[in-house]
Design a protein that fits this description.
The chain is of the alpha/beta class and 140 residues long. The chain has a single domain, classed as 3 Solenoid (UDP N-Acetylglucosamine Acyltransferase, domain 1), CATH 2.160.10. The chain has two helices and 13 strands; from the N terminus they run ααβββββββββββββ. α1 runs antiparallel to α2. GO terms for molecular function: serine O-acetyltransferase activity. InterPro entries: Hexapep, Hexapep_transf_CS, LbH_SAT, Ser_O-AcTrfase, Trimer_LpxA-like_sf. It comes from Saliterribacillus persicus.
Length: 140
């Protein structure tokens, strides 16, 4: 069973208030794939985790839209102790090692470069690269 199916099963059980099995599935995912993808996050069932989501860490309240691709060693979550997690749109590609931190919104069809650190919103269709991330093809 791949990581997306495990997450989907855990999320389905969590939403139906099954108390223990989602936690067990999360532990199994952590052991098998070295990732932390909580069932409390809202990840669309078409999101892809190539390389079985190795090293991926996602915050509890994160939202990830359909057809997004999250490569290995990506961190998506809160920043500076504030529990405000990113909202990622549809058809986004997040490169290996990227960090998306804080209360940011990533627009549809955006691209996040490998090892980029995103701490500001990325508009629809833009590419963000660097530390901190800057927009490459923004018309703003």
């Amino acid at each position: 069973m791949n990581i997306t199916k495990q997450y989907t099963l855990a999320r389905w059980l969590y939403l139906r208030k099954v108390p223990l099995i989602p936690k067990i599935i999360k532990i199994i995912m952590r052991i098998l794939f070295s990732c932390d993808i909580p069932y409390t996050s809202n990840i669309h069932k078409t999101v892809q985790f190539p390389h079985h989501g190795i090293g991926v860490v996602i915050g509890h309240d994160t939202v990830i839209g359909e057809n997004t691709k999250v490569l290995q060693n990506v961190t998506i979550g809160g920043r500076s102790g504030v529990r405000a997690n990113p909202v990622i749109g549809k058809n986004v590609i997040i490169g290996a090692g990227a960090c998306i931190l804080g209360d940011v919104k990533i627009g549809d069809n955006a691209k996040i470069g490998a090892n980029a650190v995103v701490i500001k919103n990325v508009p629809t269709g833009c590419t963000a690269v660097g530390v901190p991330a800057k927009l490459l093809n923004s018309k703003l």
